Amino acid sequence: MAGDDSRGIDQTPTWAVSVLCAIIIIISIALEKILHKVGTWLTDRHKKALYEALEKIKAELMILGFISLILVFSQYYIADICIPTHVANTMLPCPLKDEKGKGDSGNRRLLWYERRILAGDKKPECKEGHVSLISVKGLHQIHILIFFLAVFHVIYSAITMALGRLKIRGWKQWEDETSSHNYEFSYDPSRFRLSHETSFVRAHTSFWTRIPLFFYIGCFFRQFFRSVSKSDYMTLRHGFISVHLAPGSKFNFQRYIKRSLEDDYKTVVGVSPVIWGSFVVFLLLNVHGWQALFWASLIPLIIVLAVGTQLQAILTKMAFEITDRNAVVQGIPLVQGSDKYFWFGRPQLLLQLIQFALFQNAFQITYFWWCLYEEFYSCFYEKLEFLIAKIIIGDIVLFLCSYITLPLYALVAQVP
């Protein structure tokens, strides 16, 4: 068996080589055709933003593929780099093992890994007291991690967009109501009302919200229960149309928000150098005993909750401004948005934080499945409660960010 494993391509049947190459080529061409068809479908339906998002995903997959090729070509050159053993034994992600493993299970794992080494039988030669910087086996495992990143990036991006569009689709019935007679009667522009009696102001203001602590506590919890109410949608719609269109214009605001979500999605699916840097920092800090896997999974959750709270705070501040500006309003209250409501006066910063949170969460989920595949879960997840908490947190962040926070941002960011 050892002799079979070490055979080169010159000792491999031509039918085996040709069949394997044919299968790989067919799969690659099929994937390319599918992506091309999707791009054509988006272009035909004038989904420019989604088409650009698809091009970004394809570019990122190309980067990951290029990294993979570099690893394949340079794996033995990297393995030939030798470092002292005492240096190689520092900052390990799992407890240090002896070379023989632990009992029969250790031997089985070593044999299992040997069968999965990419190719060749060349072994690095290091002098006594030195080992390879990264072994060929370790480079192969990194290679598998990159493959997992590519696959899960596509899946995660699709889920994110699907949940966001599902949320905005629920606003269609509110948009349809704007063409009914009941809407014209309920929101008659000639009607005068006290500002504090309007649905939007009443939903966002109270005595307690005037107190800073309770103000943010209320905004924090509102994102879970009523992230976007009917009065929110109608008021923001009225504010947008009053500024950008002539009075009485028939405008499908829900469709406009859907296109805005697609524009935001184009940004969210991108991976900036800063985000790639966070990926490297995580790999550096994933040291045994530091519980980096668990703490890193909390970062996206904290970011998403903070951004959602801030977006709700913006709606509440708009409601306060209406009551402070006018005691009586005509028709629907007119909201006046401003960049001053956003952190550092930069609305785009919230979108960048959403992008960072989604990538980090996607990477954490990818890393979990990679550990499961490589059978690393026994040392990376020594405590079952950490493993369960990580899975739950990852699912919560995906749902919150895609179904609640991102659509809410697409709506609030349109306020003039």
UniProtKB/TrEMBL annotation:
One Pfam family cited in the UniProt record for this chain: Mlo
Signal peptide (residue range): none
GO MF annotations in UniProt: calmodulin binding
Gene coding for it: MLO
Membrane topology note: Multi-pass membrane protein
Family stated for the protein in its record: Belongs to the MLO family.
Superkingdom field: Eukaryota
Organism: Olea europaea subsp. europaea
InterPro entries cross-referenced by the UniProt entry: Mlo
UniProt keyword Transmembrane helix present: yes
Function: May be involved in modulation of pathogen defense and leaf cell death.
Main subcellular location: membrane
Free-text comment on this protein's domains from its UniProt entry: The C-terminus contains a calmodulin-binding domain, which binds calmodulin in a calcium-dependent fashion.
Biological process, per Gene Ontology: defense response
Protein name (record): MLO-like protein
Localization per record: Membrane
Transmembrane segments: 15-36, 57-78, 142-163, 268-287, 293-315, 349-370, 390-412
Keyword terms: Calmodulin-binding, Membrane, Pathogenesis-related protein, Plant defense, Transmembrane, Transmembrane helix
GO cellular component: membrane
